[in-house]
TrEMBL record:
Keywords: Signal. The lineage of its organism: Eukaryota, Sar, Stramenopiles, Ochrophyta, Bacillariophyta. This is ChrR-like cupin domain-containing protein. InterPro entries: ChrR-like_cupin_dom, RmlC-like_jellyroll, RmlC_Cupin_sf. Residues 71-170 form the ChrR-like cupin domain. Pfam families: Cupin_7. It comes from Chaetoceros tenuissimus.
Amino acid sequence: MKSIVVFHVICSLLIESNAFTPSHHLSHQKFIHNTSTKICAAPVEALSDIVIPNVFNFGGHSISEEDLAKEDPRVWVPQTDCLSFRPLCLCTSQGYYVNLLKFKGGGVLGRHRHSSPVHAFTLKGGWGYVEHEWHADQGTYVFEPPGETHTLIVDEDCEEMITLFHVTGSLLYVDEKTDEVIGFDDVFSKLEKAKKWYKECGLGEDYVQQFVR
Ligand SMILES: [Fe+2]
């Protein structure tokens, strides 16, 4: 809960200070882009994304081995072989969720379109989108506007990536070539996935209810 509050405070401060750097002003080299098949990241009416590196430069926060050992690995809900998520707030009353997304090693989250805004705060490792040139390293804040459509990619040499995502509305999985909708995620599908996993792993289906608002 504390981390969510801190995240929201950071977002508010940044919005008020107008201290954003449009992503097209940043250049990164980690991803190779196929320029022969230009992929559209958003409708022309959509706002530009925001990428701010090094948001947390607090002087090296670290977790003790003792605290690390206390974490129950079952809180992480498996989503694919390399991807899992940890729900922090599943807000069914307002249609958004806040979760930690974790990739073990490199991986991809298929191309998807957001109906509503997304805030992302990179806590560990790095990631990016095939459709964008920027790379979100540890400490990077990213705002994704409604309409944004992208394919999340984590570098193969990244041992572990953890990012806090605040996702409002629907995340529509689309066909890579046609952009036809082929699936979706929202706070309710995330809730169902968490319930299913917590039941399977022995924490109990109701374990997730502490995160629902
Ligand atoms: Fe996304």
